[in-house]
TrEMBL record:
Keyword Transmembrane: no
Cofactor: FAD
InterPro entries: FAD-bd_OxRdtase (IPR050260), FAD/NAD-bd_sf (IPR036188), FAD/NAD-binding_dom (IPR023753), FAD/NAD-linked_Rdtase_dimer_sf (IPR016156), Pyr_nucl-diS_OxRdtase_dimer (IPR004099), Rhodanese-like_dom (IPR001763), Rhodanese-like_dom_sf (IPR036873)
Flavoprotein among keywords: yes
Full protein name: Fad-dependent pyridine nucleotide-disulfide oxidoreductase protein
Family note: Belongs to the class-III pyridine nucleotide-disulfide oxidoreductase family.
Species in which this protein is naturally found: Zalerion maritima
Example GO molecular function: oxidoreductase activity
Keywords from the named record: FAD, Flavoprotein
Positions of the Rhodanese domain: 482-569
Length: 570
């Protein structure tokens, strides 16, 4: 790999940046702030040098009413404010590393032209992946990653008076596209090959999102593999169709494919630069295998703080930081990219899903030892009007409590808590450290025991041996436990118990539990639970100190009933 320190730079050097948007433009503007004499040229393949691609789905429905708001910077502004030579609709064709020049196709002359460089930055981003589905190239099938994509879809809906649509892929873009088509009044079917939407999170939390989508009349086809798309025929009056394994055939006159992205590495490969499994190989200063060529954004592989593994991370925040840092290094500053924790958040109608680090399912697949706790605190003090519960799962190392991941789903202030947890992970904190965080409290905004603190209390109790727990997933068909092996005690009120409970449970309310212990045999393992876990924990402490072999059900009956574990409920 290239050396880690940048030499003093000469005045008037040529710096060429291939690609704009987040990584390229943050690099270009930072360079100008540090080096007034450099000749900085940005070549962007598309018509817009700097746009908010994350906002595109929200412009589809009109939530963002004016497309111009998506244009973060314009060519005239970049020229006048930063003295940049920005060339839009210019495709770079090749890199001559020995001669230190690039070739690009001029839209004016339709001929190849050359441009020398002292330093080159690749910020080409990623392409939407289009799977090999029969009919995927039809005119009514679109991607949704650029402003021209948005314009094409809007024009098609208006011209064809589309009423039925399908979205293939239920990640960030797919969920956002499906929701915004739904808000337009279209009948929408969302397809996902994985068992649930937002595959980065665990299925029990995703189940909450499923219910929210169904409440908004969206059709879900999970675990479905789309294999054929046919176009509508206006002359015959027939609808387009989507065919999938494990899902019914669906009418769809508009289809959006959003199954993920792939790093644009073709140019780099052709020039002999080192490319990894998912993107460009760079060092901690964003230099490629050629020290005079940098790469940033969605096209590179960077290190994950938790595992140390390098992979592509297609998020705007890291891309902006990487572009800025590459500029710093080119200007002689000692900098080091510190890796990612993978913080993300996604709106799903009135619900919000947040993730940092890894889900428990991902940790299990990677073979990383972990434990986790589930809590359901309100977003602010419960006695203050308008509080709303959230579900939070926090995973940590059973050896030292180091945080490995957190997932949240709720209607309010999910982003606030996921940001706190992301900061904690970046700082290398443990689950016990969360107990000691001093977070802003006033009844309209939080609680004296913030949800993040509550996760710390629950995890700290587990790590220190003050409680032993089992999860609803442990009793699922593929789980490690059998419900029949436990004497199940529900310590909620009789009224709560009557609204639904775990199969075979005996209702012994916590208020009178000590007087009714003779109903619980000591020669059988006990599983105790309540609605969210706290009363279950109180019951656990009673049973444990009186000599019972007992476990508390993590997250309580709420985790069972809302997590999709219908087989455990009666």
């Amino acid at each position: 790999m290239a050396a880690s320190a940048a030499a003093a730079y000469p005045p008037g050097r040529n710096i060429v940046i291939v690609g704009g948007v987040a990584g390229g433009m943050s690099c270009a503007t930072r360079l100008r702030r540090l080096d007034e004499t450099a000749h900085i040229t940005v070549l962007e393949k598309g018509p817009y040098p700097s746009f908010a691609n994350c906002g595109i789905p929200y412009a589809l429905s009109g939530i963002i009413s004016d497309e111009s708001k998506l244009h973060v910077q314009t060519v005239p502004k970049l020229n006048s404010w930063f003295n940049l030579d920005v060339k839009v609709n210019h495709e770079v064709l090749s890199i001559d590393r020995a001669a230190k020049k690039i070739k690009y196709l001029s839209p004016a002359t339709k001929e190849e032209e050359e441009l020398p460089y002292d330093k080159l930055v690749l910020a080409q981003g990623a392409d939407a992946f289009v799977p090999p589905i029969e009919g995927v190239g039809a005119k009514h099938v679109f991607k949704l990653t650029t402003i021209p994509d948005l314009q094409d879809i809007q024009a098609y809906i208006a011209e064809r008076h589309v009423k039925k649509a399908a979205v293939i892929g239920a990640g960030f873009i797919g969920i956002e596209a499906a929701e915004n088509l739904d808000l337009l009044g279209l009948d929408v079917t969302l397809y996902e090959f994985a068992p649930h939407v937002f595959p980065l999170i665990d299925g029990d939390l995703a189940n909450v999102l499923h219910e929210e989508m169904k409440k908004n009349k969206m059709n879900l086809a999970m675990g479905a593999q789309v294999y054929k798309i046919t176009p509508p025929d206006p002359e015959k009056g027939t609808h387009g169709m989507v065919y999938a394994k494990n899902a019914p055939d669906t009418e769809a006159d508009l289809v959006i494919v959003a199954v993920g992205v792939r790093a644009r590495t073709g140019l780099a490969k052709e020039s002999g630069l080192e490319v990894g499994k998912t993107g460009m190989v760079v060092n901690d200063q964003m230099q490629t295998s050629d020290p005079d060529i940098y790469a940033v954004g969605d096209m590179v592989e960077t290190e994950h703080v938790v595992t140390g593994a390098r992979s592509q991370l297609a998020l705007a925040g890291p891309a902006n930081r990487q572009g800025r840092m590459a500029a710093d290094h080119m200007c002689g500053k000692e900098v080091r990219y510190r890796g990612n924790v993978g913080t993300s958040v996604c709106k799903v109608f009135k619900q919000t899903a947040g993730l940092v680090g890894f889900s428990t399912r991902s940790l299990e697949k990677m073979g990383v030892p972990f434990e986790y706790v589930t809590v359901h605190p309100p977003d602010h003090a419960g006695y203050y009007p308008g509080s709303a519960p959230m579900t939070m799962k926090v995973a940590f190392s059973p050896a030292d409590g180091k945080l490995l991941g957190a997932q949240l789903v709720g209607t309010r202030n999910v982003d606030k808590r996921i940001d706190v947890l992301a900061t904690a992970m970046r700082a290398g904190m443990t689950i016990e450290d969360l107990e000691h965080l001093e977070l802003a409290y006033s009844p309209p905004y939080g609680s004296a025991k913030d949800p993040v603190n509550m996760a710390g209390f629950a995890g700290g109790n587990l790590l220190r041996g003050d409680v032993e727990i089992l999860h609803a997933a442990d009793f699922a068909p593929a789980g490690r436990e059998q419900l029949e092996d436990y004497f199940v005690v529900d310590v909620r009120s009789a009224e709560e118990f009557g609204r639904g409970h775990v199969k075979g449970a005996l209702n012994l309310p916590i208020a009178t539990l000590r007087e009714t212990l003779d109903q619980v045999p000591k020669d059988k393992k006990v599983l105790v639970y309540c609605w969210v876990g706290y009363r279950g924990y109180l019951g656990y402490r009673v049973f444990k100190q009186l000599g019972y072999e007992v476990r508390n059900l993590d997250g309580g009956f709420k985790a069972v009933s809302e997590g999709g574990y219908e087989a455990l409920v009666e």
